[in-house]
Amino acid sequence: MKEGRCLALIGESGAGKSITALSLLRIVPPPGKITGGEVILDNRDLLKLGKEEMRLVRGEELALVFQDSLSTFNPVRTVGGHICETINAHRRLPNGQAKEMALEKMADLGLPAGRVFRSFPFQLSGGMRQRAALAMALCLHPRILITDEATTSLDVTLQAQVLHYLKKHLEDCCMSILFITHDLAAAAAVADQVAVIYAGRIVEKGQLKKVFKQPLHPYTQALLRSHPSFCPGTLKPIQGSPPDLALLPEGCSFYPRCPEAAGICLSRVPEMLEVDSGRQVACHLVKSAILTKGEIAAS
Ligand code: SF4
Fold first, then answer.
1. Which residue of 64, 200, 254, 268 has the lowest C-beta tally within 10 Å?
2. Which of 115, 134, 113 is nearest to 67 (CA)?
3. How far apart are CA 117 and CA 102, in angstroms?
């Protein structure tokens, strides 16, 4: 991820988007656990930090907003009380300043701030609660905001308002966003970079405009063909369903559903290949097309 930019992580349900977010914050629920890899932020591997250091990273450096905002808030506390408690757990602020910050962020997100502040979570609509959860995450000015389908449940007008606000926040506050979604139109509205995930692996990554205009990986192509905003009138659903992440097939995980699959796809996992500056794809077909092009150019 780049500072001050928004990276969309897109893919179907079950592709591994949410578990990626939970892993970054080290809050994977048991029996799940992180068995390898690194999470690098400013040359620090977050997986190696102690519990207290990691507690400070959560909220101040990395904040996560879930789709299910009901589970975000304590049901027996008012929304305002919960937000102030969260702010005070990280910052020592003079009396009343946490409340002021919370009210300001809520108003920025188009909420009737006073009423929402005094309400219990169950007294708010889903859209209001979702924006209150976003306000809480933004109160601590995190360096990276992770939104996991956080705008999916909002109606179209509210979604446009929140996306506009996030985009403005990116520019004004130099925050970065990891925007996790299966809504490609929402991703296109807010992100400048995109990573496509399938069966727990990134299969294509690059500048969003280029990837959406000319997708190279068969899965990205299929994903775009199945979305009404990108193929109006010619929608084509992706056949089959994503594999169980605990029982991945050998070779390329997409081959049972891939219209382009060849022999090699069944036995070898395709490695990520840089096809252009900042553009990466993991597919045997793309690799052999590039090699062939290279041979033609050389001859
Ligand atoms: Fe399809 Fe093979 Fe590419 Fe996988 S590696 S996406 S199966 S062509």
1. 268
2. 134
3. 8
User: pTM for the whole thing?
Assistant: 0.90
May I ask the CATH class of domain 6-191? alpha beta
Q: Ligand 1 pocket, 285 CB below 6 A?
A: yes
Report d(CA 202, CA 191) in Å as an integer. Answer: 17
Ligand 1 lined by 216 (C-beta under 6 Å):
no
Question: Where are the chain's structural domains?
Answer: 6-191, 217-298
Distance CA 67, CA 153 (A): 7
* Atom nearest to 253 CA in ligand 1: 4
Taking alpha carbons only, the member of 183, 174, 179 closest to residue 195 is: 179
Written as tens digits, the pLDDT of the chain (299 aa) is 888 899 999 999 889 999 999 999 999 999 999 999 999 998 999 999 999 999 889 888 999 998 877 778 899 999 999 999 988 888 878 778 999 999 999 998 889 999 999 999 999 988 889 889 999 999 888 999 999 988 887 888 888 888 888 888 887 777 899 999 988 999 999 999 999 999 999 999 999 999 999 999 999 999 999 887 777 677 788 888 889 888 888 999 999 999 999 999 999 999 999 998 889 999 999 988 888 877 655 55
